[in-house]
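Teaching assistant here, posting this on the class forum so everyone can see the example we discussed in section. The complex has two components, and the goal was to see what a joint structure prediction looks like when all of them are supplied at once.
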Amino acid sequence: MLDEPKNQAAGDNLDYVRDLPGFERGHPHYFKDPMIDHLLEIVMLLGGELWTVKDRQAVTEHLLATEGKVTPEMIEQFRPSADMKEKLARDRQTFVKHVYSCLYSDRAKATKTDYFGIVGKGE
Amino acid sequence: MVRNPQHDMLSPPVHDEASRQKFVMALKHHVNIHMRPANETVFERRAKPAFEKTSGRAPETRREVAGAMKQDSWYQMYSSVLRTAQEMMWDSVCDSIYRNDDALTAKFRRYADNPKKLGSLELDPEFPVPRGMSEIGVHLQPGTYAFDRGGGDVIAGALYEGGGNLYSMGQRVGTTESKAEIIQRFLAERFPDFKPKRILDIGCSAGSSSTPYALAFPDAEVHAIDVTPGLLRYAHARAEALGVKVHFHQRSADDTKFPDGSFDLVVSHNAMHEMPAKTTAGMMKESYRLLVPGGVAVHQDLNLRYAEFPAFKQFNVSWECENNSEPYWDAYGEADLKTFYLDAGFREQDLWLGLFAQIDGSIKWYITCGRKPA
């Protein structure tokens, strides 16, 4: 999105919105090279799929430990206890932080990529 | 009744769909907590100096701030992540709702055709759906609010509630008090003896703010209007599934077709930022016309008062307009709502416009209120 901003107040005129990337039906690009957007999308989608597998594995392990067997139906019927729900939520947050914090963390200050250091932790 | 009550029209996700939904919410929360605040740092330390270098002055408007920020790789990455997360949210919701497509249609039919149903549904096949609803997928909702395959199609409403619940939970909105409950608390504090007998909810979407009025005022007759059939069919079935009596109509906010003095209370929730400013002004006039003497209008929405925001803050909140398909977001932010009320006939001494906090203090809504002289 390196164009000049075209963000006029809408009023009743909708013609302008066709020029805005956010109104495209498809996936807009924000970097000069759209491949970077595509790669970021792939990384995010993979993160979602990996978490889904981790979540399923946690349920599988729990069922095996408590029931001695596991089936797809048992996974669908499974309702975690409050404690397990809380642990999964904690694990999910840790996973997201671990995988994506390099986008803003000062851990990356050691690199020569300037904007990581400039942005700081964002806490 | 906080947001997300359980009912028969919801489409429960299977395990993997629920996992994806929770992941997206965690990611969006992470972006909002850790990445959004960094925008200001990037602006002050990099985008603003770059703009000053070429222009000889600091950016003065949100559009100039946007022009400077869009050149910065940080902001490009932030926008790309946030946009993708919103698309992923819809993908995760669509999976479970489209899997239940036939079942949802059948359920709608069952509720709509039930001779003992509590409320009603009135659709107008000739109704001109506004282009802003039919041509734009607001919030990136797939198919737009106007998606309609005829018959008992409720997908637009199912997506609205499914996506809305996830989005709101991610923002911690409505987790302790629904928007309708907030307005009811506002009314109780301001007008303790006010007991409306006839209530109109304008821009009701999936009806999640309409039903709480019928529950809070069991003797009142509650009507709700919106502009697209898919939302209204779903809202009707949802209300029936909850066992709550509401009458839904396909009508415009600025031309409701109800007779003068039809209502004691006229409300809207997060509707003003989804309509042109001209329609908002018309809705205020319609509110005044519809109210009985002593009646009250309350229109609640996001705290987007651009006249009070510095340029950077305007830019930061305006991300939704350009990137999350909110065509009227900035128009709402710029609108002079007080003047709309005064032009509609309300007196200045009968107006209240300001912030009102959700009961847990986690979010403040902008509430506008006018009372018609008795």
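For the discussion questions: The CA atoms of residues 87 and 93 of chain A lie 10 Å apart. Chain A has four helices and no strands. Think about how each of these relates to the inputs above.
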